[in-house]
Amino acid sequence: MTDQTTTSTTTTSTTTTVGDAHVTVADVPTGLFIGGAWRPASGGATFDVRDPSTGAVLASVADATPEDGIAALDAAVAAQDDWAATAPRRRSDLLRRTFDLVHEHADDIAAVMTLEMGKPLAESRGEVVYGAEFLRWFSEEAVRIGGDYRTNPEGTGRGIVLKRPVGPVYAITPWNFPLAMATRKIAPALAAGCTVVLKPADLTPLTTLYLVELFRQAGLPDGVLNVVPASDAKALSAPVIADRRLRKLTFTGSTPVGSALLKQAADNVLKTSMELGGNAPLLVFDDADLDLAVDAAMQAKFRNVGEACTAANRFFVQEGIADAFTAALSERIDALRIGRGTEDGTDIGPLIDSRAVDKAAGLVDDAVARGARLVSGGQRVDREGTFYAPTLLDDVQPGSDILTTEIFGPVVSITRFATEEEGIRLANDTEYGLVAYAFTEDMRRGQRLAERLETGMLGWNTGVVSNAAFPFGGVKASGLGREGSHEGLEEYLETVYVLTPDPFAA
Ligand code: ADP
C-alpha cells in the first residue's frame, strides 16, 4: 500500500499529517477551536475521517459534545460586543488577510479537500479560488454597511435607519464544498460584526479546520470564530439552537434536515438562512448553440462528481436537437476518466460514500425499469472506493424516481419535449427551485424563461452560476435567504429605525 497516511495516536494532539502517494499535507488541525485555542473534545472522543477513494482513515478529529457546543457559544457570546464594536476596516482587514493566506496555501487546502471529499485536484483548486472570493467580497462589503435618513411624509419628523449585527451565529455546513460553504457563511457574518460557531460536516471537516487555522494566523480575535466538528450533529446542535443567546441559524444541506432545523429555530424565533436541496432542470431548445450547450451541460452535471445542490438533475431537450445533443454528450461522457482525485488526469472521483453509490444505482435501475434507454455507463465501478460510472439515460419516463429525487451523482437523465410551454411546465414540476439552466440563442425566449421558471437562479447559456458577487439561493423547498452579493450581508444584519421630531420645529 502506497498510503503514507499517519494519524495522531493521542487525543490531545490537534494536528496530523494526511496524504497518499501523490500529495501529503502536514499539520492539518484535528481539534475543536474554541475561544481562540485548539483543544480536544471534553471527554477526549474522536471520530475518523476517511478517503472515499480508498476507505483509508485520513485523520481522527475531536468529536465535540453538546457541552463543547455550548462552550463554543459561550466564547462567541463573550466576543460578540467587542467584535460588533470593532472598526469595519479592521473586520475587513482580517477577511482580506485570510483571503491572502488561503491563496498562499491553495495547494495544501486543495489536497486536503480532495483527500477527504474525493473530487479531482483541479476541481478542489477551483473551489479554493471560489471559496476565497467570499473572503475578498465580504472584506469589501464590510466597509459599505449603510443606513438611511429621511423626512417623514408628514414633515414632522426624521427617520434614521441603521444596521446592526444580528448577534451570535450558528452555522452548519455540508460535506460537498467544505471550503466554500464555510467562507460563504463566515465571511458575511464576520463582516457584519457577528461572531460564529461553525459545525462542519463530519465527512469532510479537515478543509474547514485548515481554514480556521488560517483565520487564526490572520489575527482572529478570541471567540469570534469557533469550530466544533461532531459525529452527532443533532445532539450537538439542538442545545445551541435552543439557547436564548443565539440570534441566527444558517444552514446548507438537505431539505428534510433544513426543515427540521427551521422547526427548532422557530422556538427561539431565530433569524434563519437555509440553502437546501435542488432538482435543477437543464433545458436545451432547438435553437441552442450545440457545442456550447454540451460543454456547459458537462460542467452543470459533472462538476463535483454531480454532488452539488446546483447539479443539473433533469435534462429536458427539445425534439429537434435531442438526437444531436444526446450523441455529443454521450461521446464526452464516455471519454471521462475515472480515478482517485489525487491522480493526474482524473475527471471523475469517487462518490462520498457507499450510500451515495447505492442511491445513484437505485435511481438508474428504476428509470431503466420504467422504460428509459441506457446510453452510457449505468454500473458501479469495479475497484476499491465508492465509484459509480458516469451515466446517460435518454427517454426517461414520467413517474421515474430520478425526476423527483436529487441524484447527487454522475447521472444524466434526459426527457424530450416538443414546445416551450411544455419545457417550462416540465421544469417547474418539482417542489424545488434552486437553479435552472437553459440553452437558447433567442433573446426573447431567454427573458420569458427568466420570468417563468420557478427558480432562484438561472444559468442562461452557462453551466455554472456560483459567484460571490451574486445572490445565491433558492425558492420553494430550496430554501430561504441568499448568500453572496450585498444580499448575503443583509442576512447577518438587523434593521433599527429611529424616529426623531423635526429639528426645525418650534
Ligand atoms: P447531506 O445529505 O448533504 O449530508 P445533511 O442535511 O444530512 O446533508 O447534512 C448537512 C449538514 O447538516 C451536515 O453538517 C450534517 O452533519 C448536519 N446535520 C444533519 N442532521 C442534522 C440535525 N438533525 N441537526 C443539525 N445538523 C444536522
TrEMBL record:
Swiss-Prot/TrEMBL keywords: Oxidoreductase
Enzyme class: oxidoreductase
GO molecular function per UniProt: glutarate-semialdehyde dehydrogenase (NADP+) activity; succinate-semialdehyde dehydrogenase (NADP+) activity
Residue ranges annotated for the Aldehyde dehydrogenase domain, each copy included: 38-496
Active site residues per record: E275
Enzyme Commission number(s): 1.2.1.16, 1.2.1.20, 1.2.1.79
InterPro entries on file: Ald_DH/histidinol_DH (IPR016161), Ald_DH_C (IPR016163), Ald_DH_CS_GLU (IPR029510), Ald_DH_N (IPR016162), Aldehyde_DH_dom (IPR015590), Aldehyde_DH_Superfamily (IPR050740)
Record-stated family: Belongs to the aldehyde dehydrogenase family.
Protein name according to UniProt: Succinate-semialdehyde dehydrogenase/glutarate-semialdehyde dehydrogenase
Protein's organism: Curtobacterium salicis
